[in-house]
Amino acid sequence: MKACVIAETSAAARALCAGARGMADEVVLIAPGVEALTGVADKAVHIDVPSGNAIDDAYASVNSVVDAEAPGIVLVEPTRSMKVLAGRLAAHLGTAAITDVIEFEGDLATTMYFGGVGQRKSKANGTAIYTVGAGVFDEASASGTDAVEEAPFAAPARALRVTGTKDLPKSDVDLAAAGVVVAGGRGFAEEADLQLMRDVAAKLGGECGCSRPLAEGVDWMPREAYIGVSGMMLAPKVYLGIGISGQMQHMVGVNRAGTMFAVNKDKNAPIFKQCDYGLVGDLKDVLPKLAAAL
Fold first, then answer.
1. Which residues form the Electron transfer flavoprotein alpha/beta-subunit N-terminal domain (predicted)?
2. What is the pLDDT of residues 214-262, one digit of tens each?
3. Does 205 appear as a known binding residue?
């Protein structure tokens, strides 16, 4: 059986191709609008998206590549554009995309629904199309060739109209690859206090993340650092939540962590019911002492 992987970031392409290697005899990476990563699949197929077109407009080209390859399984990185391509592909093939997969057991995929409140097991009917987040294939390793093919861009009948572009500041946040994640929430009253969290993360050799308000409310943290139901879905070995209340929208992004710690000045914060170890205290007092002890 053959598997196709559709991804736009190198980390996801590598992880998904590694997972696909254990599910199929041949792996093909499809890279729409981005440079094709080599050495992770039996071949890569690059689709050059013209300037002025969104990556979402590559759906006709992606559909054609999948038709030609005829895979039994398609693994898709769950970014906004890749989700669009997954949905278009599912409609094209007359099947459905199974989203937010957190575990595979043979041909059964465990997914979350109702924002992560529940889990269910699904089995694909026809070509299996899955969107798969970080941490599912971490134990696997990718391998492949340097073979890259070019697929023509097929302009859609109704293309997205790009009205403008804006360069966003580059972020070096890579939460998906982090074994230790230290996250901050509304408990941080001032942006300068985030340095206390960064000091602890540095001592632990971890990455810094946040709940939604710090990334999309006050813009103190990059969008790539947002953990939650509409942000990053992680499975780190260690998670430390600081000044985070523990609402479901955030916790669903880290509920697969190996060990969970929390620091909050509110002893009734919901996060204390979900973590393995909790400390009640003011972060301005706790974090310097924690950093010094580490």
1. 3-172
2. 999 898 999 889 999 878 888 899 999 999 999 988 998 998 899 999 9
3. no
Q: ∠ at Cα 246 (242, 251), nearest 5°? A: 100
Residue with tokens 């403008």: 164
Q: Where are the domains of the chain?
A: 1-148, 173-291
Is 246 annotated as ligand-binding? yes
Rounded CA gap, 250 and 255, in Å? 9
pLDDT, mean of residues 87-110: 93
- The pLDDT of residue 234: 87
Strand order in the sheet with 108-113: 118-123, 108-113, 97-105, 128-132, 73-76, 2-6, 26-32, 43-47, 148-151
- The pLDDT assigned to 157 comes to 84
- Matching CATH topology for 1-148 and 173-291? yes
Q: Any known ligand binding at 1? A: no
Q: What DSSP character marks residue 82?
A: H
Q: How many CB atoms lie within 10 A of CB 232?
A: 22
Residue range 173-291 forms a domain whose CATH class is: alpha beta
Maximum pairwise Cα distance, the chain: 61
Q: Which residue has the tokens 């979402």?
A: 56
DSSP letter, residue 227: B
Find out whether 98 is annotated in a ligand binding site. no
Determine if residue 211 is labeled as part of a ligand binding site.
yes
CATH topology (fold) of 1-148: Rossmann fold (3.40.50)
Other CB atoms within 10 Å distance of the CB of residue 57: 24
Residue 167 has a pLDDT of 67
Known binder of ligand: residue 264?
yes
Q: Is residue 248 a known part of a binding site?
A: yes
Average pLDDT for residues 51-73, to the nearest whole number? 95
